[in-house]
Amino acid sequence: MISQLFILSPRGDVIINKQFRLDVPVKITTEVFFRTVKFWKDGDKAPAVFSEDGVNYVHVKVAGLFVAATTRKNVSPSLVLELLHRVAKVIKDYCGVLSEDALRKNSILAYELIDEMLDHGYAQTTDTETLKQRVFNEPIHATEDVGKSSVGGGVTPKKYGFFSASVGQFGSGGAPTSAKRSAVNRSVIATPQGPDESAGGRNEIFVDVVEKLNVTFASDGSQVSSEIDGSIQVRNFLHDRPTIKLALNEELAIGGRDLGAFGGPGRYQGYSAGGGMAVLLDDCNFHESADLSQFDVDRTISMTPPAGEFALMNYRVAGEFDPPFRLQTVIDDGTPYRLQVTLMLKAEFPVRNTCTGLQVKFPVPRNCVNAHPTLEQGSVGSGQQHAAYTQADRAVVWQFKKVKGQGEHVLTINVSFPDEASARASKKECGPATLSFTIPTYNASRLQVRYLQIGGGPTGGADGIAPGGGGKDGKGAHRWVRYVTKSSSYVCRV
Amino acid sequence: MAAARTKRSEMTDISAALRTFASKGRPTKEEQAQRRQLFQKVIQYLTIGIDMSPVFSDVIMNAHTTDVATKKMLYHYITHYAQANADLALLTVNTLQKDCREEDPVIRGLALRSMASMQVPDLVEYLIDAIRLGLKDADPYPRKTAALGVLKVHDLAPEALAETEILEEVRRMLISDRDASVVANCLIVLREIDGERALATKQNVYGLINRIKDFTQWSQVTILETVALYKPADKSETFDVMNALEDRLQSSNSAVVLGTVKVFLHATLDLPDVHQQVFERLKAPLFTLANAGAAETAYAVWAHLHLLTMRAPPLFAMDYKSFFCRGSDAPAVKKLKIEMLTAVADDVNTYDIVSELCEYVTDVDAVIAREGVRAVGRIALDGDQNVAGIVDRLLQFIEYNQEHITAETLVQVKDLVRKHPRWIDQCVVAVSGIELETIVEPEAKAALVYLYGEFGQAMPEAPYMLEPLLDEFDEEESEEVRLELLASAMKLFFKRAPEMRDMLGKALAAGTNDANQDVHDRALMYARLLHQDPEAASRVIAGYKESVANFSDGAGFADKFGEQIFDEFNSLSVLYRKPAFLFTDDKPVEVPRTPDVIEAAGGGGGGSAMMGDSLIDFGDEPVGASSSRSAIDDLLGMPAGGGGGGGGGGGSGPGSSHNLLDLLDVPMDSASIPAAPPPPLVLRPAPSLDAATFQARWAALPPAPGCVSGPRVLTLGANAPAVLTAPPPLMSHLATRGFATIASGGAPSTGFKYYFYAQAADGAGTFLVEAVVNPVARAANVVLKTDAGDQRGAAAEDILAEAMASFAA
């Protein structure tokens, strides 16, 4: 397996360097690694796995840090990559935040964790809960204020008011930043053994349904390809390791699961997207601790969630879906020396949702002299929209603070050229437009968490929604269920 | 100096402080915390590379501490410096031994792990005792630590370990221990010591599969590796194994899923229909992993998907949209996707795929843009589909007027016209608009020069385009271009002598003075050829050329080792596209086919027409170099006109390696080289031949020596009557030996009839087989025909005979 694990700062300083086997020169490998990554041929990004002088280097980049392993064996790259991510995640779970500063302050703790997670280069325990029994150093907070806000307990996450633990209770507007951040930056160790909230971590669990959209539109507006990569992300700070039960839409059809056993009749059968309301997933996978015995019956997942952050379920929808945005582009080459590009943007999602931080990037031809964007009437000076051409990128960037559902916006770009012929010839060099955005409380696949039940009690569903916050069950545990849709690759061709 | 003194004095302070703490029998809570901080400081210094070994003895004096956090740091320190301070390390033995009997299992495990990690030979004796104790511990934590300790002892002193009963104990624990983490470590240890294959027994595999869910995901990967080496006895056992592991495919850990996929693929190799079903089943989970999760893990999954797609492109033809690039993809992933798109293009999806690829051509990333052009070119080249539209698209790229796009397009066009002469007219028209001076890249420049030379009769301006380049022959930096210039000048000379005479003269003069040996030799040879016999020169240089049936490009390397890389699924081999023996110390499983220069040379006249080709091709050679190769081929076709550096015996055909070596100035006096045995026949793992060609050749070729007087009777393996109830099993078996099936039929009662074909790996020879198989009698009546001569024919017969005999043996 692996011979060495090391973590380097973005500048190549060695923060952690742990040797497991004597078959690699551990003192120079860190340097060889950093040099190779820094000066990868052709200015490309170095791949996650490469070989140098007979030593195989496998690395991941997390929060600017290089987490890397060396080996001389023909290992499974996936295994090492997953393991490195897991190591980074566990360190993060312990330190509350993973950064160069945090890691330097907690390097002893990190060593202790690595010693328990890997022995002789083989993965051992990486489960936070088991590690807690064997790890004795305590985390040192990287930055003062982060630590305080997370353990304060008195900080009521007011902005979470519109998120609920049950279905269909959408709020509107606002960005849930502070509560989220404190949850992210919290150490699993800060959770006290008792239910006493004021002493440390709140007894709570966050369930985020995050969907990343990959859509490519042809110039006629049809979808060339469309895919949703979804994930149910959990951040668990519940006390006393209760079991939880998470229920998804009952009308949920999943492609891969309906395939027969090998040697049997096999093939897809049954589920269809009929009725219009069914949610069809092409495939999904689950965290190792998920108990799926009831999943095929009533779409519920039971588990004793590990402390900290993990993906409970990943899923993929490959079919067409209603895209949240459409962008239509018209290019007028009627005037010599000039192309007039009109971008018409339509937000197709419901009025009650608001998209934050939309950005439309529209590349213009290389040989143009200038590109001048003009915002629609009424929006100039309102501070809501902004558009500018940057020479270096050869692109016009059109930004919005907020876009309301069903909103429509127009941008006109005048692109000027040095000579008459090149304007027309360069027409096909315009675009494609790339959109990046985040839409809270909206998910494109319509996958829903019907209820989230904590402990064995019959709580869940619509009951137990505490005022001013998420659901709270009898034992005082807070539940936050939240939906968000983001762009991953959202391309509108011209 | 000042800094050094500070450092030294700090070391003295640390040393003093450590001693103070060591002398305190029962430290207060406060003192414990202070000591902890002191140790933290020591470890931090150690991490950033400051040599902390001077305080080794002071550290050891604190070994009796009861604070676990401090103890851990202390052991961390000791293991770090133990090797360099073996004598001092011995001083810790007492403490370590004591800790191995400590009440707290965490301490017992810690002491054991630290002791084993020190790698100090003098400690082995103590270590073996501690491991004995640890393996019997009631708590699983010391037990699993002890198990891995066994491996550490093995690395340190294998003989000492072999003298004990410990390995037997570990083997016993693998089967009987109740704790999964202990079993997992036993498995790890035995895989390294006994060998991975030795562990893949039925008992082990069943035991591990049955409780696989008890193991961590990491251990599951090790188990799956072991299962993948196990060969189920029959179909139903294969299904049992697969059904037991089926739910592993829904893991969110890509290593677990790929490990499972490997088991499924390897278990079904002999069951073609199930194998295909496996492909269908594994797509969805792999696509999910490739799209979810971190970029690094996704890349590894894409690399594996790439391998599978290249192995069976038609099975992924429906999924082509999954291979469309995303803006968020890393360049490496985009490259893989574009290659996959090229591979899966078929009658149905080609239009969509080419349209998509054309979008990439305008990508801001020039590398991706070129990949797009190359992919369109490859599809046009390989496609039997409606290529017309694709060629149009390819030629349109020239109009984009972007240097890198035009350059890449030219390279593709050159290959296209060499394979499909019907596109020459269209391509020549499109290319003749390009101004040569706008092309900078050598490969593209050489391609354009080649086109001028080859199709100069259709391009009125060709001589004048070449003129400036020929005039400044000396200033051309790339020898690839210079070689091509010479060849093109020659070709054009035979087409348009009046215009070319002066230019050619100047070029040959410049070429013979060239510092580059290849350019020099070629110019000299052209000059001599013209001098000796212009008629012959004309036949050689401007003669009719067969269109190229198949280019062996860079992918050929992966092809060569394709099976081996597939065998090493879920390993680095897949990412590097190389079998493990090329980048690790592991010995190759099979002796690879190497481009044996010596063999080729020794073979003399027996050397094959393609041998020179494969010689050049070995390694990651850029595609475009084939142009210069073609020129070499052209040259070599000449009847050698004795004398000078070129003087060798007559080669057998165009491109003979014999002649190539002559050209490379290898002394080649045929008399001085003893006749070496001919190279052994190796068959290409995945031959390709279409039915029409098969029929035509079958009619034309003579039978091989063994079947001249009627079919040769070969014997099948003992279980053939049971196994061979339908044609496929024999087909898949023969495929592993290099014989592909072009047609099959029949029923068990009447016997089966097959038509197989195979191709020599070096390209020299196609073998066609008609086989009438009677499974009950275990007899196969075969007729083998070949164009490779008797010797190879007989060799192919031997391979076939072995293949038949080993079927169902």
Automatic annotation (TrEMBL), chain A:
One of its GO terms (biological process) is intracellular protein transport. It is found in: Endomembrane system. InterPro entries: Adaptor_comp_med_subunit, AP2_Mu_C_sf, Clathrin_mu, Longin-like_dom_sf, MHD. The keyword Protein transport applies. It holds the Pfam family Adap_comp_sub. One of its GO terms (cellular component) is endomembrane system. Residues 202-493 form the MHD domain. Keywords: Membrane, Protein transport, Transport. Belongs to the adaptor complexes medium subunit family. This is MHD domain-containing protein. It comes from Micromonas commoda (strain RCC299 / NOUM17 / CCMP2709) (Picoplanktonic green alga).
From TrEMBL, chain B:
It is found in: Endomembrane system. GO terms for cellular component: clathrin adaptor complex; endomembrane system. Residues 637-659 are annotated as: Disordered. The keyword Nucleus does not apply. GO terms for biological process: intracellular protein transport; vesicle-mediated transport. Keywords: Membrane, Protein transport, Transport. Residues 18-532 form the Clathrin/coatomer adaptor adaptin-like N-terminal domain. This is Beta-adaptin-like protein. It comes from Micromonas commoda (strain RCC299 / NOUM17 / CCMP2709) (Picoplanktonic green alga). The lineage of its organism: Eukaryota, Viridiplantae, Chlorophyta, Mamiellophyceae, Mamiellales.
